[in-house]
Structure formats: structure tokens, C-alpha cells
Amino acid sequence: MKHMTEEELIAYREGVAGQQAVISEHLAACEECRGELERFEAVLAALDTLPVPDPGADYGPRVWREIAPRLAEKPGRWWQVWMEPRRLAALGAVVALIVAAFVAGRITKRGNTGDNIANKEQVRERVLVVAVGEHLGHSERMLVELSNAAPIDPGQKEVNISAEQRRAEALLQENRLYRQTALQEGDAGLASVLDELERVLLDVAHSPDEVTPAQLEAIQKKIEGRGILFKVRVVNKELQQRQEVTMPAPAQNESTKRERNKV
Amino acid sequence: MNRMQQSVESTQALAESDAIAVERTLAGDRDAYRVLVERHSRNVFRLAYRMTGNQHDAEEVVQEAFLRAYQKLGQFAARSNFGTWVYRIAANYAIDRMRQRQKEDARRETPRAEDKDGMENDPLNHVQDKAPTPERLTQSIELRKQLELALAALSDAERTAFVMRHWEGCGIEEIAVVLKSSSNATKNTVFRAVQKLRHTLQPYLETKAQARAMGTES
Q1: Exposed e or buried b per residue across B69-92, where buried means at least 16 C-beta atoms within 10 angstroms of its C-beta
Q2: Which of B23, B70, B177 to mutate to test the interface with A (most CBs of A within 10 A)?
Q3: What are the two backbone dihedrals, phi and then psi, of residue A211, each rounded to the nearest 5 degrees?
Q4: Chain A: nearest CA to B6, how far in angstroms?
Q5: CB A43 to CB B197 under 8 A?
Q6: SS3 for A23-90, per residue?
């Protein structure tokens, strides 16, 4: 008889297993798995004995008394979210992109009017190429630094990666914008690499500020395992080539998109 | 009317009442927000305590969660459940607080002092047979210490996932939003948390059980 894995039993116990009924049926027939589940139950039951202190019957009014003087006259409206510094920075990047696209569009408009539509497309892509290239460069530097991070001496218990973590948080906001733009532009290859990069940035941004050497190694292995540095380098190089070859008026190059899709 | 139906209706009534209080708060009625704070404080406290592991931090998380919820209330208007929303804000802030606490502890490099309410919250006080012998007291303090150490050894994400799923009964999707992760990754985080807790605690619990069976423990 094939026994349940530890993962299946935990998922069953926590009610998140895909096939609760199948596992339940197996447990009814298999003493070994039942014993294993009981061992889990014993650990969880011990944890359940950890009490939560009673904050008192007047806790709600007490919280209100504490926070009431700190509340503004009126609660925040949705647009105030956009006034947060981090969002303002991301918004600034988008505005800069739009302005750059507009200015470049005005310049190229003076040329052949028949090619206006094509020019606009090219300008938009050029702006995206430059901005994304820069973003990938920053991401690559952060990932390289993180991949090379190591304890200063062998006995060090924790390594501080808070600088990389903060950079990852900032890059994450930009990355989302560029990924969405790449999708809108129909550049599936670029969007896919940015999507993978976003997952890595998320992992780094959500890591603790200080990690043990083992945790650091796990992060580095994850970066290496996904091959994200290689992909970022390839796409960035290709973007640089496109920028050089197609300046001042780059043509839409389908073959390069196809190449990137392969990556 | 059966009990299940009554429970569903009372939950719906509460959500509707919350929605009205939110609308009134947005219109400038601060007393309406007071209703929401008083109604949800204890639930948020329970979550915050389990995540942070101490009363002082938990109380700070509760206050900060309601302050942040007030500041962002305009974003809530279209959502359906204020309780779930403020819960999520509290979980996010608790993660920040746990990280901050770890940094402070590392800086001090001294073990955290026992909570002054350590004896009142003794887990064995919740077990029916609780003869107040000195041996039993020593064991219960030791057990509590082991349980707390096992929880403290989890990463922030693992502890959050475990607390929200096992103790608070939150759905995987809801936990995934707090962890800013996918459903599958969140399921894995729950799995890792339980697996780690088991590997840390089972040897201790089995040794205790054996000692009890052999009568070497009171």
C-alpha cells in the first residue's frame, strides 16, 4: 500500500488538501498513516495549549481612547494613496516615460508625415527599450551583489541584506509597470522575463533584513536555479543592441522579439 | 430557523452594519469608526498576539492596524468585509513589527525577558489535571518555553501562514494576499511551518510522554 506523504497529511490536517475524501478513505484503512497523523495531532494539540491573554472586557473602548486623538478629521480618500512616497516615485517614472515619448514624438513628427503612425510606434518602443534597459541593469547589479554576498567571517551567524531588500522593493514597483507596458505592447518575451524577475524581486523584498548563512545560500540557489541573471543579461544586451542599431529611428523588429521569446 | 442559518444571518447583519459604519465614517462621523474599533479589536488582538508572541507588541499592532485602516478607508468602500480587511492590515503590520523586533533583539544580544504574565498564561493551566506541585510548574514552564521557541524558529512568513490558517482558520487565498504570494506557494509555506514545528517539538513531547509512562515524572 502506498502511504501518504508528510505534505499530504499536513494538507489534510489543515484542510487544504485537494483530495480530502481520498486521504480520509486511506486513513481509515492504513494504521501507519493514522499513527503518523496522530503524531502531527499531538504536536498541534500541544501548540493549542498556548493561551492568548484576555485583554479585558474594556479592551475595545481602550483601543479607541488610545487612537482617537491620533485620527485625522476625515479618513483618507483613495487618491491619497498615490501621495505615498514610494507610489509617487513610480508615478514619476511613468510620467517621465510619457513626457519622453511625447517629446520624441514631436521631434519625429517633423519628418515624413506619411510615416507618422509608424514613427509613434517606434518612439514608444524606443522609450520603453531605454527605460527597461536601465531597470534591468539596476536589477542585475542588485542580484549580482546578492549572489556574491557572504558572511565576513565563518563564525558570523547572520548576514545583513537590508540594502538589497530595499532596492528589491523599489525595483518591484518599476518592474510591475514595465511588465504591464510590455504586455500592452505585445512583447510577450520581455513580459515573461520581467514576470520571472518580479518573482525573484518579491522573494528578496520579503526576506528578513538579516538572514543566516543557510538562508542566504537558499536565496542564492533560488536565483541561480531560475537562471534569472542569465535571462536578464541576455535581454538587456539585446535591448542595448536594438537601441544602437535602430537609433535614431528604430524599426519594429519582429525577429528580435522572437529571439527573446526563445529566452 | 436552524442554528447554521442564524449564524449566517448574524454574520450578514454584522457585515451590513460594518458597511454602514464605514459609509458614515467616510462622511465625517468619527463615532461610527468607534463602533468598528470596539467591535473588531479583540479579534485583531488575538491574531496579533499569536503572531508577535507578546502582549505589548500585540497591542501596538492593534492600534496601528486601526489607524492605518482609517487612513486608507477610502480604498475600502468597494470591499465587502471590514473585519477581514483590518485583519489583513494587522497581519501585514505584525510582520513588520516581528522583523523590527528581531533586529532590536539582535542588537541587544540578550535573551528577551519572560513576560510578567508568564505564570497566568501557563499552557498546563488549561489542562484539566493541574496539581500545583513544584515539579509540574517547572515542566509547564519548560513546555511553554519549548513551544514558544519552536514558533520563534519559524520565518515571518511561516509563522504568519501557520497562525492565520491553523488558529484563525483563514482561507489560503486570504493568507496569500497578506504574504503577497501565490496560493500554491502559500500552501507550501503552511506545510513548511507545520513540518518545522513537528520536527522541533516531537522529540521533546515523546521524551516527556515516555517519562510519564515510566512514572519518572509526577
Answers
A1: bbbbbbbbeeeeebbebbbbbbbb
A2: B70
A3: -120, 155
A4: 25
A5: yes
A6: HHHHHHHCHHHHHHHHHHHHHHHHHHCCCCCCCCCCHHHHHHHHHHHHCCCCCCCHHHHHHCHHHHHH
Residue in B with minimal Cα distance to A72: B71
Distance CA B85, CA B64 (A): 14
Among B105, B92, B85, B82, smallest CA distance to B36 is for B82
Measured distance CA(B89)–CA(A76) in Å, rounded: 15
Least confident of A33-42, A105-114, B17-26: A105-114
d(CA A237, CA B20): 56
Let me know: does B197 contact B150? Beta carbons within 8 Å.
yes
Task: Among A7, A16, A52, select the one facing B172 at the smallest CB separation.
Answer: A16
Q: What is the pTM of this model?
A: 0.55
ipTM of the complex: 0.77
Tell me which chain A residue has its CA closest to the CA of residue B169.
A14
Sign of CA dihedral B110, B116, B119, B121: negative
Window 23-42 of A, Cβ < 8 Å to B: 39-40, 42
Q: Which residue has the cell 501585514?
A: B92
Q: What is the pLDDT of residue B47?
A: 94
- DSSP 8-state assignment for residue A164: H
Distance from CA of B68 to the nearest CA of A (A): 9
